[in-house]
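To the wet lab folks,

You asked to see what we're planning to order before we commit. Fair enough. Below is the target structure as tokens, and below that is the sequence we designed to fit it. If anything looks off to you, flag it before the synthesis order goes out.
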């Protein structure tokens, strides 16, 4: 059973949290909501 995680805010802190969750767990489904046009990302 996958865990459902919702992150509010797609800037640095929210995307850092999503990336860490994604790296640390295989059983998580992550949804990020951002009201602006851009999200934070690193190549």
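Sequence we intend to order:
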């Amino acid at each position: 059973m996958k865990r459902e995680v919702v992150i509010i805010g797609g800037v640095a802190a929210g995307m850092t949290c999503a990336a860490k969750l994604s790296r640390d767990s295989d059983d998580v489904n992550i949804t990020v909501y951002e009201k602006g046009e851009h999200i934070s990302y690193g190549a």
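Structural context that might help your review: The chain is about 30% helix and 30% strand. The chain has one domain: 3-33.

Thanks,
Computational group
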